[in-house]
């Protein structure tokens, strides 16, 4: 989180809304530990990361959707399973849960 | 202007004051996203609520425990904080103060070890009794450079060292390293390593026994310090030391020099500067 605070505050100072995505659980092999964090501004700027680059694109989409929606936090799970074999996943085979919410608290 | 919970959290993270954030990530819709910020202080301070005072009370206690261990984890509770129920999932994120590394001995190996330890996120203190060597100019990356005798310094800060913290004794001078190690053994530091050749290590162990150190305490000392990487330069040695620190914390067993008998340094023909 520390490494993205400057970006979050700069975007907010520019009047932009910001979403924060944090890894809250990792099952199996996963590149980053719980607490790994990424911030996305409403204009699509990105700071930080939540994986080794595998799911960042999907997290940006989720973050922008959360900013456009009701502001309720959304828990997103990324990983390989039968019914989402073609969805975004981690090449390492792990499953990560990412909480996405606006920084408005 | 009212300071938001996020601003309080960000301020503590920036200034490396321990703080934790607990948040409901699964449970009744009206509780989702409820947050508790716990600042252990002193004085302890709790901001926000998870949506139920009993849940807050139980979570606060768990948060303080996770924060002390530096762990971020999801815990499950009943709606009123009941154990062994799963109505509510709470993600506890710990922003612990960085772990500390205390290095005794202001030598060339120290400068390299400071650099690698900073990469790993340690708050690094270099301590040496000789003011000529223990200077900020020689260790610009160290957080603190202290001119003091090791045992005197540990007498002051030793009680603050815990399982995440590290003490490295690089003096390899019995006048300094025996009192430093004896004082370090009285702390709860998770790693204690001491530099020196195999002969120095044997002689030091004899001195430590003579100073009254028990065998169980001698076994805590990683000496000769570092993994058996065949390191030669101060920088390579720093990597060997930090590798050993990581492995010991993780309970892994790559080969440590202490547990081998052969030469500490790589064959010259195999070294990179041939």
Structural features, described:
The complex is a heterodimer of chains A (105) and B (274). Chain A is built from two helices and five strands, in the order αβββαββ. The radius of gyration of chain A is 13 Å and the shape is globular. With 105 residues, chain A is α+β, with helices and mostly antiparallel strands. In chain A, strands 3-2-1-5-4 form a five-stranded antiparallel sheet. Chain A is 21% helix and 30% strand. The longest helix of chain A has 13 residues. Chain A has one domain. With 274 residues, chain B is an alpha/beta fold. Chain B has two domains: 91 residues, no CATH class; 171 residues, NAD(P)-binding Rossmann-like Domain (Rossmann fold). Helices cover 34% and strands 20% of the residues of chain B. Chain B contains eight helices and eleven strands. In chain B, the strands form two sheets. Chain B has a six-stranded parallel sheet with strand order 8-7-6-9-10-11, with helices on both faces. Chain B has a five-stranded antiparallel sheet with strand order 3-2-1-5-4, with helices on both faces. In chain B, helix 4 runs parallel beside helix 5. The longest helix of chain B has 17 residues. Chain B is elongated and about 65 Å long. The model of chain B has no long low-confidence stretch (mean pLDDT 93). The chains are: A alpha+beta (105), B alpha/beta (274). Chains A and B meet through helix 1, strand 1 and strand 5 of A and helix 1, strand 1 and strand 5 of B.
């Amino acid at each position: 989180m520390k490494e993205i605070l400057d970006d979050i505050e700069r975007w907010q100072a520019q009047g932009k809304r910001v979403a924060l995505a944090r890894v809250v659980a990792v099952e199996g092999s996963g590149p980053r530990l719980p607490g790994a964090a990424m911030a996305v501004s409403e204009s699509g700027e990105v700071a930080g990361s939540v994986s080794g680059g595998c799911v960042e694109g999907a997290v940006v989409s989720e973050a922008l959707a959360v900013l456009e929606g009701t502001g309720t936090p959304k828990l997103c799970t990324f990983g390989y399973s039968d019914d989402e074999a073609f969805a975004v996943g981690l090449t390492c085979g792990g499953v990560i849960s990412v909480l996405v919410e606006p920084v408005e608290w | 202007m009212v300071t938001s919970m996020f601003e309080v959290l960000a301020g503590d993270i920036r200034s490396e004051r321990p703080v934790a954030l607990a948040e409901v990530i699964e449970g009744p819709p009206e509780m989702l996203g409820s947050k508790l910020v716990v600042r252990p202080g002193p004085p302890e301070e709790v901001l926000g609520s998870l949506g139920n005072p009993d849940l807050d009370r139980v979570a606060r206690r768990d948060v303080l425990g996770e924060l002390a261990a530096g762990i971020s984890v999801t815990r499950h509770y009943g709606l009123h904080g009941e154990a062994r129920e799963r109505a509510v999932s709470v993600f506890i994120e710990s922003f612990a103060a960085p772990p500390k590394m205390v290095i005794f001995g202001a030598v060339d190996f120290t400068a390299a070890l400071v650099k690698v330890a900073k990469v790993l996120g340690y708050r690094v203190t270099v301590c040496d009794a000789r003011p000529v060597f223990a200077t900020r100019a020689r260790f610009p990356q160290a957080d603190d450079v202290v001119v003091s005798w090791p045992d005197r310094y540990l007498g002051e800060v030793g009680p603050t060292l815990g399982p995440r913290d590290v003490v490295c004794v690089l003096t390899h001078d019995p006048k300094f390293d025996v009192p430093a190690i004896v004082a370090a053994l009285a702390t709860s530091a998770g790693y204690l390593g001491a530099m020196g050749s195999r002969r120095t290590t044997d002689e030091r162990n004899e001195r430590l026994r003579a100073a009254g150190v028990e065998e169980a305490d001698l076994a805590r000392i990683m000496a000769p310090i570092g993994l058996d990487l065949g390191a030669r330069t101060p920088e390579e040695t720093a990597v060997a030391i930090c590798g050993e620190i990581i492995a010991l914390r993780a309970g892994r067993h790559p080969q440590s020099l202490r547990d081998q008998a052969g030469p500490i340094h790589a064959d010259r023909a195999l070294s990179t500067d041939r």
